[in-house]
Amino acid sequence: MTHDALASIWRSLGGNGDWTDLLRETGEGSLPSWFAVSDLAAASVGAAGLAVSEYLAARDGRRREVTVDRRLASLWFKGSAAPRGWEGPSVWDAVAGDYATRDGWIRLHTNAPHHRRAALAVLRVPPDREAVARAVRGWEAEELEAAILAEGGAAAQMRTEAAWAGHPQGSAVAKEPLLRDEPPGEAGSLPAGPSDPARPLRGLRVLDLTRVLAGPVATRFLAGFGATVLRIDPPGWSEPAALLDVGLGKSCARLDLKAEDGKARLRELLAGADIVVHGYRPGALAGLGFDRETRQEIRPGLIDISLDAYGWTGPWYGRRGFDSLVQMSAGIAETGMRKSGADRPVPLPVQALDHATGYIMAAAAIRALTRRLATGGGTLARASLARTAALLTGLPAASPAEGFAPAGEGDFAEGIEETSWGPALRLKPPCAVAEARMGWDLPARDHGSAEAAWLE
Description:
By secondary structure, the protein is α/β, with parallel strands linked by helices. The protein has 17 helices and 16 strands. The chain has helices at residues 3-12, 37-60, 70-78, 113-123, 129-136, 141-150, 161-166, 168-175, 214-224, 240-246, 260-271, 284-287, 292-298, 323-329, 332-340, 352-375, 385-393; strands at residues 23-26, 66-69, 81-83, 97-100, 105-108, 155-157, 180-182, 205-209, 228-233, 250-254, 275-278, 303-308, 379-384, 417-418, 423-426, 431-433. A seven-stranded mixed β-sheet has the order 7-13-12-11-8-9-10. A three-stranded mixed β-sheet has the order 1-2-16. The protein has a three-stranded antiparallel β-sheet with strand order 3-15-14, with no helix packed on it. A hairpin with a 4-residue loop joins strand 14 and strand 15 (423-426). Helix 2 packs parallel to helix 16 (352-375) and helix 4 packs across helix 6 (141-150). The longest helix has 24 residues, at 37-60. The two termini are 40 Å apart.
């Protein structure tokens, strides 16, 4: 694990540098990439583990060693579930992918139905990949990117790292901290009684208002150390491939937040939450009547963790984006193509920006819990995929040597997990905190499989 990555993450969280001495790394190998993806995996998972150790120490004064398994951390970045006797759903829509334009490359992100409709409306073609490719070849990349975004879709032109550094948004992101952390808000109630060292987050309630992929990774980690996590999705939303991986340990319910009864229920859920994690575009929650001030009024002492794709400043603030799109914008895919001598974009072998950002968000939430023990105040912390990309591209370059072997029998936990889609094996936890058990009390469940209420 690169010390630079761990130190940068822990420093961004406001942690004391001497805590990083408690982290031990096991396992060998790296995911094949021109970027230090496995270093980032181990460092981000390890930082979240250190936050758990620090939280426990705030309760009983004992510093506990944290171990991160480099191989397992990297495998969790690829996906944690292995179906047994059935085939998992596809991660990508049939239209999504990289397409050659008149002057370069563009990536279309069409997993969400409304994003696919937007791209097809601009291109004026049916949902046929060959028809899309023919239409895209008639456009310049930047022009098509702008047109799809104006239509309400999601797309990204492939840029070089140098072009991104000179772009107004790339320049703005480079000046942002890895984590924007604002002062505590009004004091609220604290968990009663001493923490259980075996399940340190037990009794804490986490409201998950996120979808693919960083936010759900964050709340999955919190559930792994005992937190009660309730995920809320809108009616009709479905992402089964992702939910099989990141729905572990959570109750998954639906609410229509455009309806008054849905808003009323969300208000009740917020009133009982310790942490809320959300990935709505800036202004979206405010438009529903739940701006930051309202959230804090509903739940004084609330720990409020949010995510944005392209950063919190600059001209692209609030722009639609996903991991694969940020890789195109920030030069990662172009660097992979150029160094590999390939004739098309070469992205990272995993959605590392999403996963690393998720663990950073989890660490931020747990460190905020530690601060709340002392002050009773809440926290507003904000992360972005683009700033995590800047962290990755700033690490020492890697070489895409042959990576470690695919997940095998020894990488999986004992027993079968009965998910909503069928039986599956689950990878062993990627980190350990002395005395604390990282494990999940609930199997992955489908959207709307639970009531929108806190479990007692």
